[in-house]
């Protein structure tokens, strides 16, 4: 009998997955089917999700642009379906994400007649959003990404307009601490997460996050968890760097979680396309095995709490369109037909 993945890791961490709206929202699936002119078969994804994962997060449906339609106008129709799906299937549920420069509605940064919003306007809107979401879901959500991707890859400072973020521009650097204080009020029982990518890859970015966290903690800002997105490659970064990153943030007394893991078959700068061979997938399996051994070790040390994959089968992975559009990748545990890949077999022994 095949083992259940989350049971394999029950003494270490929860094992989660990001869920696309096509799985829990029939109206959305039908809409997409009409748009692309063919049926979407996500039955395997749904069955695998229900069986092997005990923690879920919405891949897109709990982002601000999906919910915050206009001043005082909230659309919770998709988010409600996501939460209902999680509760009916006995899954723990994460919220992704409250404050982020991407997938936020443009209107919140605008004032009268297309001018820029004032500091007061943006603060009021952000606060209102956080409190309204908390009011509705605070009892259902175990952990919340409060601030996502706030550190610049270029300057290693808090992102500015040059890095496509208007939060700091309009509210000032302390938008981060304000968001956490509001989130603490709105979600009193949830872990409050600062989430980012490449922290295990770019040492300067990791250091910048470390310095930021030290400042926040000195001011008693209620951040208690660091989320490492972990969009990595088969070839990079070395496991030792990941281990170092987890321990660095753990040393601040914070919990660490892996929030969006996938392991691309391509190296970062690689723009080419290659065949997905059995040999390549074996190699990927070895990489997943080594990563999960590291995660076990870091869980035993008390640092690592959760590991979430950013999807279930390779059929619906965002990596098939990022960073190169329409290039099939194979970054997850199950293949496009929903069959277990060596990666799944190696980590589920
Ligand atoms: C991605 C989704 O997977 C895509 O479907 C969507 O088109 C763009 O966003 N970091 C994040 C996630 O925090 O929200 C992103 O998700 C992937 C990178």
At a glance:
The chain is an alpha/beta fold and 349 residues long. The chain is built from 13 helices and eleven strands. Helix 11 (239-250) runs parallel beside helix 12 (278-300).
| Main sheet overview | 8 strands, parallel, barrel
Number of strands: 11
Strand order of the largest sheet: 1-2-5-6-7-8-10-11
> How many helix segments?
13
Instruction: Return the structural class.
Output: alpha/beta
Strand content: 15-25%
Distance between the termini: 12 Å
Q: Work out the radius of gyration.
A: 20 Å
Shape: globular
Q: What key phrases describe this protein's structure?
A:
binds (3S,4R)-3-hydroxy-2-oxopiperidin-4-yl beta-D-xylopyranoside, eight-stranded parallel barrel, single chain, about 350 residues, alpha/beta, 11 strands
């Amino acid at each position: 009998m095949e083992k259940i993945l989350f049971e394999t890791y029950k003494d270490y961490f929860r094992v989660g997955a990001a869920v696309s709206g096509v799985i829990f929202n029939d109206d959305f699936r039908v809409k997409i089917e009409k748009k692309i002119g063919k049926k979407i078969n996500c039955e395997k994804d749904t069955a695998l999700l229900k069986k092997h994962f005990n923690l879920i997060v919405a891949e897109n449906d709990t982002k601000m642009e999906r919910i915050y339609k206009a001043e005082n106008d909230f659309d919770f129709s998709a988010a409600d379906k996501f939460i209902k799906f999680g509760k009916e299937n006995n899954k723990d549920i994460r919220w992704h994400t409250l404050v982020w420069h991407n997938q936020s509605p443009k209107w919140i940064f605008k004032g009268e007649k297309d001018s820029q919003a004032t500091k007061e306007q943006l603060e009021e809107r952000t606060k209102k959003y956080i409190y309204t979401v908390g009011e509705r879901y605070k009892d259902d959500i175990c952990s919340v990404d409060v601030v996502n991707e706030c550190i610049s890859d270029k300057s290693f400072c808090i992102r500015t307009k040059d890095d496509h973020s208007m939060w700091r521009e309009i509210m000032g650097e302390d938008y981060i601490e304000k968001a956490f204080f509001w989130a603490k009020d709105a979600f009193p029982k949830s872990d409050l997460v600062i989430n980012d990518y490449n922290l295990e890859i770019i040492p300067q970015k990791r250091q910048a996050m470390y310095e930021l966290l030290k400042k926040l903690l000195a001011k008693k800002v209620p951040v208690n968890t660091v989320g490492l997105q972990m969009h990595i490659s088969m070839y990079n970064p070395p496991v030792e760097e990941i281990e170092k990153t987890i321990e660095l943030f753990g040393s601040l007394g914070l919990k660490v979680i892996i929030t969006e893991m996938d392991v691309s078959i391509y190296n970062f700068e690689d723009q080419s396309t290659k065949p997905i061979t059995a040999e390549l997938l074996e190699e990927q399996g070895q990489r997943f095995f080594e990563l999960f051994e590291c995660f076990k070790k870091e869980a035993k040390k008390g640092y690592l709490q959760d590991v979430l994959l950013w999807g279930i089968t390779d059929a619906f992975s965002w990596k098939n369109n990022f960073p190169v559009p329409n290039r099939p990748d194979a970054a997850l545990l199950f293949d496009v037909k929903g069959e277990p890949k060596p990666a799944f077999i190696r980590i589920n022994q």
